[in-house]
Amino acid sequence: MEWMESCVFYQHCDSELASDLIAGVFYDLGLKGVVVDIFQDKDLKFHNVQSFVDNYNCKVTGYFAMDDSFDEIKKCFEKNVDVLCLGMGIKYRIYYHKVYEEDWAESWKEYFWPEKIGERIVVKPTWRDYVPQKRDLIVNLDPGMSFGTGSHPTTALCIKMLEKYVRNRDCVLDVGTGSGILMITSYLLGAAELYGVDNDREAVNIARKNLLLNRIAGKKITICRGNLLENINKKFDIIVSNILLAPVMDLVDKISSVLKGDATVILSGFLQKNLNQITEKLLENGLTVIEIKSYEKWSCVVALNVD
Fold first, then answer.
1. Which tens digits make up the pLDDT trace of 236-269?
2. CATH number for position 46
3. Is residue 76 located within the same domain as residue 214?
4. Which of 76, 107, 138 is the last residue of a domain?
5. Quick one: which of 118, 274, 279, 281 is 20 to 30 A from 246 by CA?
6. What is the pLDDT of residue 105?
7. Which of the four pLDDT bands, split at 50, 70 and 90, describes residue 200?
């Protein structure tokens, strides 16, 4: 498949705020992740657009599939970026570069290295060597076009909370499974039954491949395509979800039907400034917030279902 690498080069006095806002435009159009670059080295080359680097100090990049809907998405994307940047006083310019999936998947691999997250979990790309240390639990991963490498703060926060709350023999549901990294983590920590759901067909395929890479298979391992909790008729000890703010809010409204009496809910994918919205929604639905962790403006909330 062909993909359009869509780069918004920009300059603003608050680069982090601007990157969050521009990333939001991508997310609103269905993307699950973006890449944010803040240029430190003026000698960097980005597809022969050095003049962009000279005039703009930051870049947000996302990848749109070049299917039948691309032209309409491109128009909407450009309009929304323009409205945002004009309103915020962000100087910007958009640059496009067509790439094939296999080229994209190979080009970013040089930036992905083994990383220890929390006390025991080590996320290891399949193409890197790593010598395990005592008590390490290794997540072998090849994310493909799916996001979820452990490098994003929300993924790392979820892994740390799983490390703390998963118990032996738990039944775990991962909503928005992406690369399958949180399912694999849960299994390594002792979970006996795993369910993963994602609305993206390719993400489902990638998650299945990554579970097999980690020798995780069997009747108690399920990955399916779906929207949030549709077609799930089971109750869980742990529900973890690292998705965007709006679907997290929708998830919480529906979550009681799949919770065991003492179930733990781990939610991330949203900015720290949106914490109150999440905690209030949890309380409205009878859940008790027991822990909040934040890192680099992103947050993770842990809640308990007290039946």
1. 999 999 988 888 999 999 999 999 999 999 999 8
2. 3.30.70.100
3. no
4. 107
5. 118
6. 63
7. confident
Domain hosting residue 60, numbered range: 2-107
Residue 63 CA, chain-centre distance (Å), reads 14
